[in-house]
Amino acid sequence: MRRNASSPPLFLVAIAVIVAIAITLPLTYLVIRTAGVGTEKLINLVSRPRTLTVLFNSAGMAAFVTLFSALIAVPLAFLTLQTDLPGRKFWLIATTLPLAVPSYVGSFALIAAFGPKGSLLQLWLEPLGVTELPEIYGWFGTILALTLFTYPYLLLSVRAGLMLIDPATVEAGRSLGLNQLSTFFRVLLPQLRPSIIAGGLLVALYALRDFGTPSLMRFDAFTRVIFLQYKSSFNRNQAAALALLLVALVLGILWLEYKVRSRAAYYGRNLSIVQSPVIVKLGASKIVALLFCAIVVSLSLFLPVGVTVFWLWRSLASSNTAYGTVSWSAIAQPALNSVAAAGFTAVIATICAIPVAILAVRFPSRVTTAIERCSYIGFGLPGIVVAISLVFLGSQYLPWLYQTLPMLVFAYLVLFLPQSVGTIRSSLLQLHPQLEESARLLGRTPWQTLKEITFPLVRPGVLNGAVLVFLTAIKELPATLLLAPIGFDTLATEIWKATENVSFSDAAVGSLAMLVVSMGSTLPVLLHEQKTSKR
Amino acid sequence: MVSSLGKISALVALVVVGGSIAFSSQAAQQKTLTIYSGREEKLIAPLIAKAEKDLGMDIEVRYGDTAELAIALLEEGKNSRADVFFAQDAGALGALAKEKRTLPISNTLLAKVEPQFRSSAGQWIGISGRARVIDYNTKLVKPSELPTSIAQLTNPKWRGKIGWAPSNGSFQSFVTAMRLLEGNQKTLAWLKAMKANGTKDYAKNAAIVEAVGKGEISLGLVNNYYLYRFTKDNAKFPVAHHYTRRDAGAMVNVAGLAVLNTTDQKSDADKFVAYMLAPKAQTYFAQETNEYPLVKGIQASQKQIPLSQLKPPKVDLSNLSDLQGTIELLQEAGVL
What we know:
The structure holds two protein chains of two kinds.
Chain A: H1 10-23, H2 25-35, H3 39-47, H4 49-82, H5 88-94, H6 103-114, H7 120-125, H8 139-163, H9 167-175, H10 180-209, H11 212-216, H12 222-233, H13 236-260, H14 286-318, H15 323-362, H16 366-374, H17 383-397, H18 405-429, H19 433-441, H20 446-457, H21 459-475, H22 478-483, H23 491-500, H24 504-534
Helix pairs in contact in A: 1-15, 1-16, 2-13, 2-17, 4-5, 4-8, 4-10, 6-8, 6-14, 8-10, 8-21, 9-10, 10-13, 10-18, 12-13, 14-24, 15-16, 15-18, 15-21, 15-23, 15-24, 17-18, 18-21, 19-20, 21-24, 23-24
Chain B: H1 2-29, E1 32-37, H2 41-55, E2 58-63, H3 66-76, E3 84-87, H4 90-98, E4 102-103, H5 107-110, E5 125-137, E6 162-164, H6 169-182, H7 184-196, E7 200-201, H8 205-214, E8 219-223, H9 226-233, E9 239-242, E10 252-260, H10 266-277, H11 279-288, E11 292-293, H12 323-332
Parallel strand pairs in B: 1-2, 1-3, 6-7, 6-8
Antiparallel strand pairs in B: 3-10, 4-10, 5-8, 5-9, 5-10, 5-11
Helix pairs in contact in B: 3-4, 6-7, 6-12
């Protein structure tokens, strides 16, 4: 990549440095606690077979989930943007919405549908003599569930990338005699690399940090084992040591991503001529394409929504009281709280992520890369670890902020900021720096250039990032329980309380409310994206 | 001009109102008793509301997971704002006592509860009892086939038909009790035999009861009160309780209270503990949460067999906080 002669604007550096330091605070805590373990015990803990198994499990799980997500997301992105797939607009939106399904709700739905005994599938097959289905628990169920509910990260990223590809390159490929398939593999795919890698990184880290799925699928991933350590021995030091091991894995993945991502630039779009993309005629393969979309959407969207509605219907049918009406009104305040906290987080995350992404892309150096990489660490950590570390740091050093709304928003930022950084970064990569340089040459200040040139052009990436942050923040549980002001209930805490209390009707009401709020906030962005892509 | 004046005055009003809310909440905080509760809001909130009214004090409650709250309390240390900890199990209370985060409870209050249900050093006190039971699917298992001890659960006829929750606090307390009663060797052998017999892992007691109801398994090792939450939603839920006698399978654990050493209102905290031991609250636990009241003379719910007829083993609950040994054993057996 060509070196930028000018040094980065100071205000960007200042913001980015503050962000990076704040985000890596929990690491300090983990180091302090791990130091309390003692060398001999630490070596013992790290080298015991079980720890190594867990390390292997987590790494394998993240790798498979990322691979399968890419296999689903790349064809879906292409099909929903650049082909004559019947009902294209519907699929465009339906394939993105699984993002709004909390993984614990989704995993629960999968178990309810495909569990070994007493599940929907087993009950249907019972007349045929099937009394027990093969186990869904373990590797299979974990990878299936995580793939189904995280592939949209890749999808959004790849779609944003696809929209920024200059159709002229495709036409050039065609005129050079490439058929549709080889155009896809030789022209589109290489240009999509930064988007695939950026999205894949989010998928891999999300798989590592998720707790709901491994615990429901009984899979020994780091999150589950760290949780057990906390829960059963109240031993914070050993849990911190395990968490640091997970940080090492996250750093490994970040390093791998850094190595894999090509250093070439991808900007190519000539902005003076906005052309519509070449639409590929699917022909006979239309049926296969439709079937593919239908299977993915059925499992990742219709199944969880269906199972949730079924719970609600069943519990309302079995209790003859006016339970439903009471619960709906009781869920209104938590819903408002969720939207407020997650919405506020999305705005702040965007403001923090823009400088980090701009520095990393436009002023690449060791320092700016380190800042960008640092921002990812929190996203790879389980929520409970970040929550406990902020309990420690907050109560000791920021008592006036401890257990207030700003503290909660900060916790969300630590956990979810990289989603915004990642999407903004990949949009920026595809934007030609000459545009910004011309603006500077024409006498614009760095700030004016940002405002008038950069922001408008990377808007899709910025919006996608904000939506991702919003959707994950709204689902967050452990940090919310420990760091929110007392009495600040959110949809996630309400669902948790209902499941603790085995109140299926309340859990269903909460889950449905969350699905509605999440999808309601995703739809406008998707529709907006569609409008701009049609331009 | 007028409109901008209006805006300014609105802004000023907002600041004044906001400021006064902030101020009043700050002022109120000095008299508010703060409780960290690992017990569920749905079960406890009505009782807390009664206590606020009867005691004439403001109480605020942070609800969460017992273990996570205990760890938060340890991390907060001397900066904690919590006055009282209401825990789901004795292990978490023991862990706080061990790290010197608790204050002793007065002897008059301690005397209300049998010694086996409170800290021997008086650092915490049990409020309600929770019995370990075997829940079974009434369509799949006849009462005559049921095991009379947990040792019989390793019989091949239960292969793949039993569910347990190795990561669950109550289950680990049960294993700890077994270690205390029968020794590590026998417990380890039992755990290994159970695993070899295809015993299935679940994340929670509730999930076990649900799986028993669905017939995914025939028997589940759980606590006594989960079943009633299912029968409330579905009267025909095909699951019933079965009790073993005098072994760890019949252990009674407690949910209890500790007063934290960071409290600045010890007398209010003590009043709250006393309230939870008074007949009104004890009856509430018997009737509403289907647990066993621990204060002498208060009857358990009609649905349950009385505490006196349960034949729990003789175990010092204070010793149940030695979970590390249990965890190691569970891991050695490949269960956790």
